[in-house]
Design a protein that fits this description.
This protein is α/β, with parallel strands linked by helices and 201 residues long. Helix content is 51%, strand content 16%. Strand 1 and strand 2 form a beta hairpin. Helix 5 packs across helix 6. It holds the Pfam family Lipase.
Length: 201
């Protein structure tokens, strides 16, 4: 019996030591985890860019998250706004913007068109990395929506989010935080240029 007790005590001691070591390792890794989070935040801040697309600047004029900057580039607070987000492996030069924004402009719809470029954060072939950044990019898009609403430039009822492919997940995440009137996810670039014909805001 004494030998059995000794074995049990020895095993329990090893288990306790293992737990203690694991806890110490987790604590030692905590600063690294925090640093990684801070790096991701910085990457998102610089890697997500916003563009106001108008007839005068169909390629888009880059704007900061600032009311005066938006107004200076021609944002019209009396109009509804469409926010377009591209998918994996694309950027502001994507056909999505040319086709979809072009359709709005061609039909003279009185809407503000805002393009979101997160191309630096979703380059091919790093799909898994891009997928992991979706929630953070969505939060950044929500920052834009919050600015539009809080500054009086728009209201949730006059906001329409359109996302292509992985961009659909981005706008979905944005809408979880900031509710808007309409969210559209589109997989096909071919069909994307028909969306403008479905919205006459």
């Amino acid at each position: 019996m004494a030998s059995i007790r000794a074995v049990v005590v020895f095993v329990l001691s090893l288990a306790s030591a293992g737990c203690a070591n694991t806890g110490s390792e987790e604590l030692s890794r905590w600063p690294l985890i925090q640093q990684q989070k801070q790096t991701l935040t910085a990457d998102i801040q610089s890697g997500v860019k916003f563009y106001l697309i108008t007839a005068a600047q169909p390629g888009g004029a880059r704007v900061e998250l600032d009311k005066d900057a938006l107004l200076a580039e021609g944002f019209n607070a009396s109009r509804s706004s469409v926010v377009i987000v591209h998918g994996y492996g694309h950027d502001i030069q994507s056909d999505l913007f040319e086709k979809l924004a072009g359709a709005y402009l061609l039909n003279n719809y009185t809407v503000n068109i805002l393009g979101v470029d997160w191309g630096e954060l979703c380059p091919k072939p790093a799909y898994i990395t891009a997928r992991r950044r979706v929630a953070a990019v969505g939060a950044r898009v929500a920052d834009l929506l919050d600015l539009l609403v809080s500054s009086g430039l728009s209201t949730p009822a006059r906001l329409h989010l359109i996302g292509h492919s992985l961009g659909a997940h981005v706008v979905g995440n944005a809408a979880k935080r900031t509710h808007v009137a309409r969210v559209t996810g589109e997989q096909s670039l071919v069909r994307s240029n028909t969306l403008a014909n479905q919205t006459k805001s």
